[in-house]
Design a protein that fits this description.
Blueprint lengths: L7 H12 L7 E3 L1 H6 L8 E5 L9 H16 L4 E4 L3 H13 L3 E6 L4 H9 L3 E5 L4 H4 L1 H12 L3 E3 L5 H20 L4 E7 L4 H13 L4 E7 L4 H8 L24 H8 L2 E5 L1 H15 L9 H7 L10 E6 L6 H7 L3
Parallel strand pairs: 2-10, 3-4, 3-6, 4-5, 7-8, 7-10, 8-9
Antiparallel strand pairs: 1-2
Helix pairs in contact: 1-8, 3-4, 3-8, 4-5, 8-9, 9-11, 12-13
Length: about 325
């Protein structure tokens, strides 16, 4: 099967869709992180913070582009999707914008804030036992059953060209803002799970700053992409483990792998404890309450795991902020 190639032209087309719904997520200069890393005067570190979106994460960009381009095909049918939580609220928001009913299959352990946000946009949630999913395959099976038995149209949270292109609009925003300020880019650091976020951003970053190093970050217990790079093939982890509920895909998607293989040179990891420490650091230094998945990039930078050679700026993605208050307080008590 030939995998469709997502190009920078697809990202530019998606930008027109995204701009009808969203303003760009802010690119925030982090003086504390520049100081922590010993940056010289003139070099800057930026945080691309997707916590400012209506759903508290980056996921609605890909969801909006997917729904907009499939609206006619969906018609009056439902949209069915699986999600750990952030794509759930993203596709729910997108469905509400285009008048499409949405059913999302979510793990029974999903944070309350993610479930509540998803329902707030009118979506229905059906749950599965995530502790046995690697054995039962309930997540994928349930979505397929909804599609077949209820005549729903199935949406992938990351493994779809339209989702990749939509997510890439965020990368385009980064390029446009840095060029507006006449800045250069040496390193771009982004979390990798299924690969939809990184693939879209990598396309835009590689086009705008072809000499920049693009670095992935994964939880230590869910580093399938790191293994995939090492073995030059898509590697599946049967039971990924981490507090990063948004980074527990079994492998990167088929559509994402060619893009990641082309543009992403390396992937580094952080332990759950190190991620918790980064959550605490970011909260104390910037007042940002982030979910574990959203702060892996900051953890990798604080730990010195990203090669920061070069004179250009560094951009790290903060992919989401959806975390329950009680768990957040528990996690930052380190």
């Amino acid at each position: 099967m030939t995998i469709p190639t997502v190009t920078i032209s697809d990202v530019h087309v998606a930008e027109a869709v995204i701009r009808t719904h969203l303003s760009p997520a802010p690119l925030i200069r982090s003086w504390p992180l520049e100081k922590e890393l010993g940056f010289p005067t003139g070099r800057r570190l930026w945080l691309k913070d997707y916590g400012w979106t209506p759903v508290g994460s980056f996921k609605l960009m890909g969801a909006l582009n997917w729904v907009a381009n499939n609206a006619a095909r969906i018609g009056d049918r439902k949209i069915a999707a699986d999600s750990s939580g952030n794509f759930a609220s993203g596709i729910a928001y997108a469905g509400s914008q285009y008048g499409k009913p949405v059913v999302v299959v979510m793990p029974d352990t999903a944070p309350q804030i993610k479930s509540e946000r998803t329902r707030s946009f009118g979506a229905e949630i059906r749950t599965y036992d995530i502790s046995r999913d690697h054995i039962t395959g309930a997540r994928i099976r349930t979505v397929k059953e909804i599609a077949e038995n209820e005549n729903a149209v199935q949406a992938s949270p990351y493994d779809d060209p339209l989702v990749i292109a939509g997510n890439g609009v965020g990368g385009l925003e980064i390029v446009q803002e840095l060029k507006r300020q006449d800045r250069d880019l040496s390193q771009f650091v982004c979390a990798v799970s299924g690969g939809g976020l990184m693939a879209g951003h990598a396309i835009a970053i590689a086009d705008g700053f072809p000499d920049a190093d693009i670095v992935g970050v994964e939880p230590e217990g869910a580093a399938d992409f790191q293994q995939s790079l090492r073995e030059d093939r898509r590697v599946r982890i049967d039971k990924p483990t981490s507090i990063c509920d948004g980074l527990l895909s079994y492998s990167v998607g088929e559509h994402n792998w060619p893009v990641l293989r082309q543009h992403v040179g390396t992937s580094v990891t952080a332990t759950d404890l190190e991620i918790r420490q980064a959550m605490k650091w970011l909260y104390e230094k910037h007042g940002l309450r982030t979910e574990p998945s959203g702060v892996t990039t900051v953890a990798a930078l604080l730990l010195g795991r990203v090669n920061l050679d070069g004179r250009g700026d560094v951009v790290a993605v903060v992919s989401g902020r959806n975390v329950d208050e009680s768990r957040f307080r528990e996690w930052i008590s380190v």
